[in-house]
Amino acid sequence: MVEVVVIQSHRSPMPASWYQPCVDSVRNWAAQRGFAYRWLDDALFDPLPRVIREKTSSQPLVASDLARLYALASALAQGYDCAVWVDADTLVVDESAFELPADDAAFGREVWVQRSGAKFQVYRKIHNAFMSFRRGNSVLEFYRYAAERMLHRHQGPMVPQLIGPKFLSVLHNIIEFPVLETAAMLSPAVIDELLGRNSGALSRFRQASDCAPGAVNLCGSMVDSGELTDVDMLSVVNLLKGNSKLLQAP
Questions:
Q1: Closest residue by Cα to residue 84 from 73, 96, 95, 97
Q2: Mean pLDDT per 10-residue run, the chain (250 residues)?
């Protein structure tokens, strides 16, 4: 039997009530699959080198992108056959569709829909809100080494996705990582349509997605940027719980 551990983390207390049903959905999914579950709060950052912690003190999202790689590597070193990361702002909407890939390493699928003038533009990338690594894979250590090297060398302000989706998508365009298509991500434009504030974004999301999502990352950072509110997030969580068909093509 393959021993799997699912790891999540967020600062404590969590900043808004909508996070808890997201975390609960992942914990319940892990329990139903017989996976071990591990929750880390700020202890996630403890293994980071001091110079990296100091350099990313104003960008905790960047620090988290590296720290989660340490947590996954530690789990594999402790004897788990597969270590899985799922962001705390991810909601499992269809447990039966959210199957771990057989690949040694895999990332989530980002289908990002955003308004461009009177139309919507779609970008297909990958994301690290979901990652899975099996023991003996060659990707995790390379990714951790490259990300840490980038942070050591970086000068000046950091964009939040410096070593996350931006870096991964560049690599993906060259070497094409395995992708779990059901580990999706919803942009503010798609969430807006689910809440009845526009039309067109959801159909573009469906068309550009290879399959219906099993889990969706809700991009909690968009609350910090002002594009969405915590009220919006709670509304979309309540809307999607047990109603994954809203994201499926008609």
A1: 73
A2: 92 93 98 97 94 93 97 98 98 96 97 91 97 98 97 90 93 96 97 92 95 96 93 97 82
What amino acid occupies position 74?
S
Alpha carbons 88 and 15: distance in angstroms, whole number? 11
Q: How far apart are CA 163 and CA 155, in angstroms?
A: 14
Strands across the sheet containing 105-116: 36-40, 4-9, 82-86, 119-134, 105-116, 179-180
Copy the structure tokens of residue 98: 């959210």
- State the pTM of this model: 0.96
CATH architecture of 4-247: Alpha-Beta Complex (3.90)
Place of tokens 């060659």: 138
**Helix, strand or coil for residue 123?**
strand
Number of Cβ atoms within 10 Å of the Cβ of 80? 22
Judge contact between 202 and 193, C-beta under 8 A. yes
- Structure token pair of residue 144: 């951790």
Distance CA 14, CA 130 (A): 19
User: Which residues partner with 40 through β-bridges?
Assistant: 9
